């Protein structure tokens, strides 16, 4: 008798692994195709050569993604900066190196926590809303209506969001880094009695150009992931309102995972190739 | 109904090419074949009603005519262009001669009714804004809606939303108008108003109209020809009177609104047990 029970189990494991690999490859392939189509359509969205309607959409999305998110981004980044100062201070004080809290907060906020915290807030606010908005449009046949009017849904829905995100993510990241560093100043003022001017000069001395460049590259990469994943989940909604809920959750989870993964890759790259 | 059909017969005799031609269309979702070799020709100026029970494949057939789904095999020609296998740019050209009114109206909820109707004009023409506004008012007027330009779709009733979606479909003066379940979810009076609107469009613009429905009264009122789908197969195509007098058992059952035999028997046995 063939296949035997163990052989059958082995085959089913291979089958499941193969199916999983195909699904994930399909997902990444779909995201990549969507990314290129969105990128190609940017010339139709920009204010110089693009359509007025799209550019207005872009400005509206910039306000929602960027300006409306500013208070919460600053608050979370500020709190993170202060937590970092307290935690770092507790250890560094034992070695009489409390002033290195300035370096710790400045470098970690700029290289790592500023872009990451911003990305996580933006995923929660905008990534989920992109997915829910497009998913609802799919369910109510609005995306089909766009196609029947010979309008490309990627160009009409995704590209304005992408352009808005590309402009606003670096701005939000700068705001987050500044908030974190300024929050660190509060700790330093009360522990070392250092003025803000001296603190800021010490922070700038600790930072290098590569820290700022890597921060901006990460901000743009994270923004790309948030828009692409949010919109892709939205465009692939199936199963009515329940499907919209599922896609929104999936957009948030996948975007957080991909952002952390991208962060790891960028950090490793800068560690090895740009010291 | 006989007069338009006579005109159609004349055109057929004159060798008029079909404006929509569906050839051996098959669509498979997993193991289920939703369309099983459907053939259908629709001629310029006629109103074709596609009938069928829920799940018979009529909406799937319409989605293929709208180029929203790719067939598993077979061809769909719109004015001679094979939309099942043509480049995106050519497809965009074909889509400009078609208007679609969706079952859910599919109005863009974030835009006003006026902006919804103006959208295709703003996107596909270089008309000045005052001209676009004038044309929007005109299109809304054609479907019996006035003074609603600045309202949001959510502020309209179901019937008004359907009319507004027809106005949007008419924006580019299409040659073909496709309706998916135009009277679904509407009360009989509003539904009759939508039927009247379709008849008016047919009279005024001599458009080719394709309507998917299972409302028999509506179908008999607006159709020049009808076809009926059953489990993905085309079981009857013909003029209204021919379908009305069809001897096909399923067509008869559908027209006479008789339930499935097994269900009827099951119901009887259940009732007798009470």
Could you give a short description of this structure?
The complex is a heterodimer of chains A (275) and B (274). With 275 residues, chain A is mostly helical.
Features:
heterodimer; A: mainly alpha; B: alpha/beta; 2 domains; 6-stranded mixed beta sheet; 4-stranded antiparallel beta sheet; globular
What does this structure look like?
Chain A has one domain. Helix content of chain A is 85%, strand content 0%. Chain A has helices at residues 5-40, 52-67, 70-92, 100-139, 142-148, 153-192, 196-206, 209-235, 240-273. In chain A, α3 packs parallel to α6 and α4 (100-139) packs across α7. The longest helix of chain A is centred in the middle third of the chain and has 40 residues, at 100-139. Chain A is globular and about 70 Å long. Chain B has two domains: 2-97 and 174-272, P-loop containing nucleotide triphosphate hydrolases (Rossmann fold), CATH 3.40.50.300; 108-173, no CATH class. Chain B has eleven helices and ten strands. Chain B has helices spanning 2-13, 58-65, 88-95, 113-124, 129-142, 158-170, 188-205, 216-222, 240-244, 249-255, 261-272; strands spanning 20-29, 32-42, 47-52, 73-78, 81-82, 98-101, 176-180, 208-212, 225-230, 233-239. The relative contact order of chain B is 0.16. The model of chain B has no long low-confidence stretch (mean pLDDT 86). The A-B interface holds A 51, 53, 137, 140-142, 144-145, 147-151 and B 66-68, 91-93, 95-96, 98-100, 102-104, 106-109, 119-120, 122-124, 168.
CATH topology of the largest domain in chain B: Rossmann fold
Measured distance between first and last alpha carbons of chain B: 48 Å
Largest sheet of chain A: none
Q: What characteristic shape of chain A results from the CA principal axes?
A: globular
The quaternary state of the protein chains shown equals: heterodimer
Please give the most extensive interface between any two protein chains, plus how many residues each contributes: A-B, 13 and 24 residues
CATH superfamily of the largest domain in chain B: P-loop containing nucleotide triphosphate hydrolases
What is the SS-derived class of chain B? alpha/beta
Order of helices and strands of chain A: HHHHHHHHH
- Please identify the top-level CATH class of the largest domain in chain B: Alpha Beta
**Main sheet: strand order of chain B:** 6-7-8-3-9-10
Number of helices of chain B: 11
In the predicted model, the low-confidence regions of chain A spanning at least 5 consecutive residues are: none
In the residues of chain B, how many domains can be counted?
2
On the 0 to 100 scale, the average pLDDT of chain A is 92
